[in-house]
Amino acid sequence: MKKIILTAALGIIVFSCKKEGDAVVSGVDAKGEKVELSELDMKASYAYGVSLGQNTERYNQNPQLQDSLDIDQVKKGIQDFLKDSKTLDSYGYGLNIGKQIKGALENNVIQGHLDTDEILVGMMDYLKKKNLKVSVDSVAMVMDEFYQTQLANSAAANKQKGLDFLAAKKKEDGVKTTESGLAYKVINEGSGPKVKEGDKIKVKYKGTLIDGDVFDSTDLNNNGEPVEFTLQSGGLIPGWVEGMQLMSKGAKYEFYIPSDLGYGDMGSGKIGPGDALVFDIELIDISDGVGANRAPGQPGVNIEAVKPGN
Q1: Cα–Cα dist 184/195, whole Å
Q2: Left (φ > 0), alpha (ψ -120 to 50) or beta: where does 44 sit?
Q3: What EC number(s) does this enzyme carry (predicted)?
Q4: Domain locations in the chain?
Q5: Buried/exposed code over 231-242 (b: 16+ C-beta within 10 A; e: otherwise)
Q6: Domain 172-305 fold
Q7: Per residue, what are the HEC states of 170-199?
Q8: What are 44-69's pLDDT values in tens digits?
Q9: Which of 39, 199, 241, 291 is spaced 20 to 30 A from 82 at the CA atom?
């Protein structure tokens, strides 16, 4: 699995943890709990600021701008955006950078571990050509080390929560466990032959985190209508591929999927690294042979495994 570098990750984050307009607080995690910032957290915050300064310098060198950005107004724009404010020009450019920073602060892997003041210090030090605490050449390395550290820490914590959740579930009446560790409860057995790989299936489903937060469902994303696709390894998370083959037409199952049968240590969207998942699935229909092509965003899909043209 390819390495993710924070500079790239922070540029493409899709954030949904807070409503538009909410203030962002450094050192506070997604549950509102205080986080003690480590030396690496502060170093990465500064390095991130330096990288933003580099981007700002390149933007300001555009011949059409003619070095027109007022750096202090850019800084003020960033600060005000993080407090919820809006306008244009140099200040407005700062607002845009503030939006990028807010997205980084809300990322489910690093939330609570970046310091906004230190980000601004790094950015201003670079733009005002002061001596830097982190060399320009080491910015990407520092941020990558930071991201990988937070990813590993987050995955380890989430995995333990998932293991505890699954252990409790397995003690409940009616819950069965396969050799791979997939746990499930039969709500309705259905009838007829079981699904096999390569079959075209039609399902309704709901996916939740172990705290009950819904991250995907046919109600949310398909107007309550079932979706059709082909059951195939590589396009779906392993827990789906294995679980669907336990089901017959008309069956309703609840699956409890450990992270190694889900999205693993990387997570996806609202699914954090190492998260265990719960899926309620109703199998509406089955037909033999290759069916509809898959696309990212369909249930349980491992997006990295979906190749162009699939």
Answers
A1: 16
A2: alpha
A3: 5.2.1.8
A4: 6-156, 172-305
A5: bbeebbbbbbbb
A6: Chitinase A; domain 3 (3.10.50)
A7: HCCCCEEECCCCCEEEEEECCEEEECCCCC
A8: 888 888 888 888 888 777 765 555 56
A9: 39
